[in-house]
Design brief:
six-stranded antiparallel beta sheet; three-stranded antiparallel beta sheet; alpha+beta; Metal Binding Protein, Guanine Nucleotide Exchange Factor, Chain A; 2 domains; 5 helices; 209 residues; globular
Length: 209
């Protein structure tokens, strides 16, 4: 990778913008793609984003860009039950868990073992241990992050997220406010409610039945 002219951070921003369309941009998730092909593919995809955005219908969250949400949410309808200081969260979370759960970061695509795991059980919040998702609603989306089509009732909050120049729906743990990822609609994966909760695996702890 010594011939890369873009920083790892810049490459990863492109991953965030494109990876939520797995059928079109699956090549971007290949870990050993050549730098030249990577840059040309990203550039071609960037030119197609405005057209795809224009085709989206009102009321549907745009299925581009996955997780990072640097700006705070304006939705204050539900305050988390578990509240800790920053130092208290640092004491109970790993540095990567803190970055994702408390700073709304994003783990790298394909890095979570939960992405390809389909054992029976329940996925809990890594911050407060609240149950969030069951294995019965998990499916393989090909996006590089664990995907679910529904939650444990009342476990997850939704917030409007207008970062990255678009409107998306961020999902957070109802119990502690930890950042989970984003939810997308209308992608036709064939699940009962046509939603995809695209969740950082680092935000979860799995407990087998």
């Amino acid at each position: 990778m010594s011939d890369m002219t873009e920083s790892d951070d810049e490459q990863y921003k492109d991953h965030r913008v494109l990876a939520s369309h797995p059928s079109q941009f699956k090549i971007l998730l290949m870990p050993f793609i050549s730098p030249a092909i990577y840059r040309s593919t990203v550039q071609a995809a960037r030119t197609r984003l405005p057209t795809a955005t224009a085709r989206s219908t009102a009321g549907i969250t745009l299925p581009f860009a996955l997780f990072s949400s640097s700006a705070p949410t304006n939705d204050m309808s539900s305050q988390p039950k578990v509240q800790k200081s920053e130092d208290e969260w640092h004491a109970v979370l790993s540095p990567e868990q803190f970055r994702v759960l408390r700073e709304k970061g994003t783990e790298r695509p394909g890095s979570s073992p939960y992405d390809h795991s389909f054992d029976d059980g329940v996925y809990h919040c890594a911050g407060c241990d609240a149950p969030l998702y069951t294995s019965k609603t998990k499916f393989q989306s090909g996006c590089g992050w664990p995907a679910f089509y529904d939650t444990v009732p009342g476990a997850v909050n939704r917030h409007e997220d207008r970062t990255l120049g678009m409107t998306r729906t961020e999902i957070t743990c109802n119990n502690c406010g930890g950042h989970l990822g984003h939810v997308f609609k209308g992608e036709r994966f064939g699940n009962p409610i046509d939603e995809r909760h695209c969740v950082n695996g680092i935000s979860l702890n799995f407990k087998k039945d």
